[in-house]
Amino acid sequence: xPYPDYxxxxxxxxxxxxxxxxxxxxxxxxxxxxxxxFFGGGLLDRGHLTLxxxxxxxxxxxxxCGSEYEWGVHVSGFAEKAGLTREQIAxxxxxxxxxGCWTEEECCLIRLCDxxxxxxxxxxxxxxxxxxxFTPHALFEILMLCGYYRTVSYITNGLGLPLEAxxxxxxxxxxxxxxxx
Length: 181
Known about the structure:
This protein is mostly helical. 60% of the residues lie in helices and 0% in strands. The protein has 9 helices and no strands. It has helices at residues 5-14, 23-28, 32-40, 51-64, 68-82, 86-94, 104-119, 124-130, 136-158. Helix 4 (51-64) packs parallel to helix 7 (104-119) and helix 4 (51-64) crosses helix 9. 34% of the residues are buried.
């Protein structure tokens, strides 16, 4: 399928091997300004968090937002590479920091995500707890990831994007729907 010139190269580069570009990306490509702004805000590069930490944040936030689309894309595309176990993946969408599959640091990360999602902030105690495991810049990145992927969840849910055929489903991990709460 032909895509606008401004999107061709990026869509081809981001398509799964042997597959079509994600519906989210082709939908955004219908508007050049939105397409460029969306990709200008991405945080999938090497940052202040490990790949595993980043994926825990993304999967937790998208599950809490009920975005099976984005959660499933990340589970299928990154969870194995990040070293997430099946039990940890299930916990992102149907469990919590008290689940026995998490390290102390990961429990803290999930609590931070849940607090940010619930209150749109990190209170003094959250910062103090977070600094036991993360640098101030890493905490800043966690805030940005939570906000960015909440926005992605708004897009995927609000537009009712069809789930990618190859992507994971909440039900595969024992969750009737997302929520991680």
